[in-house]
# Entry
Amino acid sequence: MCARLVPALLNASLLFACAGLPACAGEELAEHVDIPRPISRSPIAEPVAEAPAVEAPFAAADDAHGQVEPTPPPAEQPPLPFADREQVRVDELLEALRDELDAVAASPAVRADYEAFLEDFELEDDDEGALYRDYVRIKVAFEATRDGGWWGLAWRITNEQPNSEKIWAQWQRLDRASLTEGVSAPTAPTVPTITAIAECDELSALFAFVARRLGLGPRSEVGLFWPTGNHVVAVWTLDRKTEHATRIVVPTTQIMLSSDASLGDRGFDPWRQRKIFDYRREDAAPGLEIPGALARAFVAQVRAHAGEDQATLQAERAARELRQLELLEG
# Structure
């Protein structure tokens, strides 16, 4: 559990750095960190409406006869899955997420972030595109499951085991009556501001669970990393069994990191931990069911945001976290 030493940290002052909060010292840190709300009472807020999409004007092109013809609009996206479904199985949700990945990979913004990632970690692209496919899967799982991410997860101390079982249990308890109208919207459902409360090890385990089941290739492993005795993040390891292994920090919370920390952040040294085991635990059985409206909204968030550039994603995450803090502290 990632926060057993909080009282000691308070006395030592500021080993924690709480993203989006005040200076987090003394009584202020205790106010924001040391008083978690009961998991069974996770607040559900009205979703914030998505900004309407702005369509670019169609470009003109000359045909063989010199006539100007408008460029056809982009192909319509298929309908979101799980319409009118009361319950959706975990394996169905994961399959629906995998169906979104090709569109994410086609995003120029995602490709540009990938090129920057390769340069930052001195990696070479491969001709088969396998590394890029893994990058897309890691990125989608990370942005969905991080604190303040697409799926409405909020960090608080829970003292639970380092797995995501309690997160799935909270999602199961979100029946139709407790979900907001935005989740059940027919065309562009949104996720409640908070769907579940979890601490750092639970969030890291959820990321690893989802990333693995999105279909990572043989070069990739995902596991849990303890940068300190009371804090956990995830790590994506490439080519573990070779002499050129690479470890990439996946900061599932901003704790002890800057507010702009994201995939590949250098705030922690992942080589401080001698072994990082590939996380293969089955936290949620394939047949476990969550509300269909929630599963549909999860897919909608991936479709709406996964093609955005990293700077935009980070700004949106910070705004969601602020709304979560207002709920938790209100």
In short: Strands lie at 60-62, 68-70, 87-89, 153-155, 196-198, 220-228, 231-238, 246-250, 289-291. The longest strand covers residues 220-228. Residues 3-64 have pLDDT under 50 and may be disordered.
